[in-house]
Design goal:
five-stranded antiparallel sheet; alpha+beta; single chain; 220 residues; 2 domains
């Protein structure tokens, strides 16, 4: 009987000892896992910091994030661009020309070309300059108002070539979907219009060079 009681006590002590060992082992395992997790996080932070510092846009005062940065939503832009075809035409009108008005104008048109004029189209959030062309130049614009302007043309060089008695003038007109605007003394300022989304328009700038008493080179 005594042996049985002692055996039961021993078994009880053994059970208590095993329980203490299990309880004691759990905090150690927990701490080990915790330390391992902290080490992994530190390695991850060091990796992110190294990558950020290698970025040329990185500032030392920037906060280091350990979570992915959401991709910013793109800003909506205005769509439905329109097309404006801008053409340049040079004409001549001669009076009292020698040997003939036709000869004078032929010389003028051989000397002055649309490409000698610089045209500028300004519209909604856009502006572009290019050399004039009789075939036209296509310009993409956002919907809204626009203007077409050009560099002024000086007739003094033509006057010198056509003789001392020659006087020259230049008049400008705009045809198509644009309207010509003039400053003081009927000086051409620009041509303006309004274009809608997806629309195609034309604007032709016409310069007429007027020559009086011109003598075409090679004439009498």
């Amino acid at each position: 009987m005594v042996i049985v009681l002692m055996y039961e006590k021993l078994m009880c002590f053994a059970a208590i000892g095993i329980a203490l060992v299990l309880v004691a082992s759990d905090p150690l395992n927990f701490e080990a896992v915790k330390i391992s997790s902290v080490n992994a996080q530190n390695e991850n932070n060091a990796f992110l910091k190294k990558n950020q510092e290698s970025n040329p846009n990185y500032n030392t005062g920037d906060l280091m994030s350990t979570t992915p940065t959401p991709t910013p939503t793109s800003t909506p832009t205005q769509t439905g661009s329109a097309t404006l075809l801008v053409a340049k035409v040079v004409r001549c009108n001669s009076d009292l020309g020698l040997p003939s008005d036709k000869a004078v104008c032929q010389f003028v048109l051989d000397s002055v070309h649309p490409s000698q004029f610089t045209l500028t189209v300004a519209g909604n959030n856009s502006s572009v300059s290019f050399q004039g062309s009789i075939n036209g130049t296509k310009v993409s614009l956002y919907p809204g108002a626009y203007s077409v302007s050009e560099t002024p043309f000086d007739t003094s060089n033509l006057e010198n070539q056509l003789g001392e008695a020659t006087t020259g003038t230049i008049s400008t007109a705009a045809v198509g979907h644009c309207t010509a605007n003039f400053a003081h003394l009927d000086t051409f300022q620009n041509a303006t219009g309004t274009i809608a989304s997806g629309e195609s328009q034309t604007c032709t700038i016409i310069n007429t060079i007027g020559i009086t008493s011109g003598l075409a080179p090679g004439g009498p």
